[in-house]
Amino acid sequence: MNREKWEKGLRMVSNPGRRAALVDAGVEVLAREGARGLTFRAVDAEAGVPVGTASNYFTDRGDLLRQIDTRLHVRLAPDPDVVAGLMTRPKDRSLVRAFMDDLMARATRDRTGYLALMELRLEATRRPELLASYTKSVRGDLEEAMEFHRAAGLPGGDESVAVLYLAMLGLLLEHLTLPGVLEGVLPGVSVPEGLVEKIVATVLPEG
């Protein structure tokens, strides 16, 4: 009987579809309840699976948080077909604007995912092991963006990419959490589209 239970548990843990569903359930819980609400029981309930299922897939909450981080970087990544289509356009400031528009559109479509990323940032300040892995993944994203910008021949250099990153991060934070802060702050400038244009124009002025 013990062997049967062990074999059943092994089959469960090796089920990638179930693992992905549990991680996505974890994203929902994290975005809605914050890190304190991210329990295995809450993930099981969100995923609609029997109590105890998540504990068969993750060693502890730290493991779950790391897997959520990995999942979100895949889930929120640019669509390769969209990128390929944009790259057929002239490599000028308008193309940079188009990439920033795509970033904002992805954030708006998957607001839950981006809120979960923000919760991960906060939790990383409390968990040294998560801080190390999360810093590495986010820094990797920034360096990848710089490399893409250089390879694509887009205007501006690494400094421009870094400033765009910081400005867009701030815009995403306000737009997804306290959108009323930005409404009407610049008369005649729409939120978020007009603010994206202001960011790009400020970082990459004409000429």
TrEMBL record:
Entry keyword annotation includes DNA-binding: yes
Organism: Streptomyces africanus
Superkingdom of source: Bacteria
Gene3D superfamilies for the chain: Tetracycline Repressor, domain 2
Key word Ligase present: no
Pfam families tied to this protein: TetR_C_31, TetR_N
GO MF assignments: DNA binding; transferase activity
Domain (HTH tetR-type) ranges: 16-76
InterPro entries: Homeodomain-like_sf (IPR009057), HTH_TetR (IPR001647), TetR_C_31 (IPR041583)
DNA-binding residues: 39-58
Keywords: DNA-binding, Transferase
Record-given protein name: DNA-binding transcriptional regulator YbjK
Upper classification of the organism: Bacteria, Bacillati, Actinomycetota, Actinomycetes, Kitasatosporales
Coiled-coil stretches: none
